Amino acid sequence: MSHIHSPALEKTGYVVLDPYDQTADPAEWLDLAYTPWRSSGVTRFAALASHSGDADCDGFWNRTPPRADKDGVWVAAQSALAPTLVRRAKEAGATIGRCRVVELQPNTYADAIYNLHQDDNNRLNPDGTGWVVRGFYNLTDDPESLLILRQDRFDPATEVRLPLPAGSRIVVDTQRFWHAVWHRGTAPRYALITSWTSGPELDAHLAAEHARSDVTSVPLDPDVVDDAQQELHRRIEERRHAFEALGEVLEPTAPLWP
C-alpha cells in the first residue's frame, strides 16, 4: 500500500498557484516571536502550529508521542497575533502539521546550494494516508530571490529556480526535492510555510487556485553555477575534515545539520 498523493504534483513535484494580493494584508509576521532554527541559511522561525501547541519548531517525530507532520496544534499566543496568516494556512482545507513563518537573512547562491536539504515530513506516516507536502507563501516582496529545487543535491542540471515576489504561492513535495532559498534582497525575507496532508481537500484547493507546473525556471550564468558547485564541494570537504578531527565520519549524502 502506498500513500495518497496529489495528482497536480505527480509530474513535477511542485506547482505554482495564482498570486495573492499581499498588499491587502497587515504585516502580522513582524509581531511574532522568533527562535533560531537552521534552514536555508541564517534563519529564525515563528511557530504558528506545532506538535503540542508550544513554540517548538522540531519535527513531530522527535516529540512525544512521535508522529508524522500532521495534526498540528495552534500556538495560542502566536496565532492570536496573526489571524490573517492562520486563515491563509487553513484556506487549503487540508490537515495542517507544522505551520511557521520563516525569517531569512540575505545570502549568496553558494550559501543556498550548500544549505540544500530534504524535509522528513512523512516519517511515521502510515501507508494509505495522505502524503505531506508544503506550501511556501512569500510575505515580503523579494522578486530577485529564488526558491531552488534540486532532485539531485549535487547535480545543477536537475535544478529549478522559482522567483519569490510578494504574494507568490508555491506548493512543493519537499521530500522529493533538495531545496533552499537564495535571498538576494537587502532586508530579511519572510514567508509562511505550512505542512498540508494530500487528499481531496488539497486537490480542490490546488484546482481552485489554478495550480500549474508549466513555469519557466529562472536562468543563471553557467559560470555562477560552476563557482557555486566548487564552493559547495569545498565546504563539504572542509566540514568532513572537521568531523574527522573529532573522530566522526560524515556520509557524503548526510544532511548538513541534525
UniProtKB/TrEMBL annotation:
Top-level taxon in the UniProt lineage: Bacteria
Protein name stated in the entry: Uncharacterized protein
Species of the source: Microbacterium azadirachtae
